[in-house]
Write a structure and sequence with these properties.
single chain, 196 residues, mainly alpha, two-stranded antiparallel sheet, globular
Length: 196
């Protein structure tokens, strides 16, 4: 059963990474997947966070603070706990000199870490879920961004679709648990309720 599921995962990876590859995706996917590593991406993220915190009112401050807590949780859970537990090899890596997947269309560095789950998917879908809860009008933008960031990992050749799917579900679950916990705590202690 595991081998069968892996064969489907590998087929889907090859479909997105190889069959759908084209010059346009080759051009846009690398900067999309690594935008948070560039000074421009970091500058935009910090600026938006500061605007949310200072100009977003009580709701904006709530989201800004919860966002920090959420990303710490999801990043540590995906990168330092689950990846080390499952130890799934990335499709772009080699085992004893043999490629895990033949002819990967690799557009960025493969990285030395494990594959499952995708930290990009976990963090970005968690972000999208949090934003969608507090700003429902922005949910399509938030989830479009989150899904694009997550799927870029398959297009650039460093994650399987199952890494993305599980990472996204994990991120959404973590966000919903944090929201529910915050609502419970702020209801019990009204001075913490910053939603309006």
């Amino acid at each position: 059963m595991i081998d069968y599921l892996y064969s489907i995962d590998k087929w889907l990876f090859c479909f997105f990474n190889q069959t759908l590859s084209n010059p346009f995706f080759d051009f846009i996917m690398p900067p999309i997947t690594d935008w948070n590593l560039s000074w421009i991406g970091r500058g935009i993220a910090i600026t938006l966070w500061l605007l949310l915190f200072w100009l977003g009112g009580k709701r904006g401050r709530t989201v800004a603070l919860l966002l920090i807590i959420l990303i710490i949780i999801t990043d540590q859970l995906s990168a330092n706990i689950l990846k080390n537990y499952f130890e799934k090899i990335r499709p772009c890596q080699k085992i004893n000199g043999v490629p895990v997947v033949e002819t990967v269309h690799l557009l960025v560095g493969c990285g030395g870490g494990y594959s499952f789950p995708s930290g990009h998917a976990t963090n970005n879908i968690a972000f999208a879920t949090l934003i969608s809860y507090y700003y429902p009008k922005w949910k399509w933008v938030a989830f479009s961004y989150g899904i694009l960031m997550a799927m870029s990992r398959v297009f650039v050749g460093v994650h399987y679709p199952s890494d993305i799917l599980f990472g996204g579900l994990l991120g959404a679950f973590c966000a919903l648990i944090l929201i529910k916990t915050w609502n419970h705590v702020s209801h019990r202690y009204p001075f913490l309720d910053l939603r309006s």
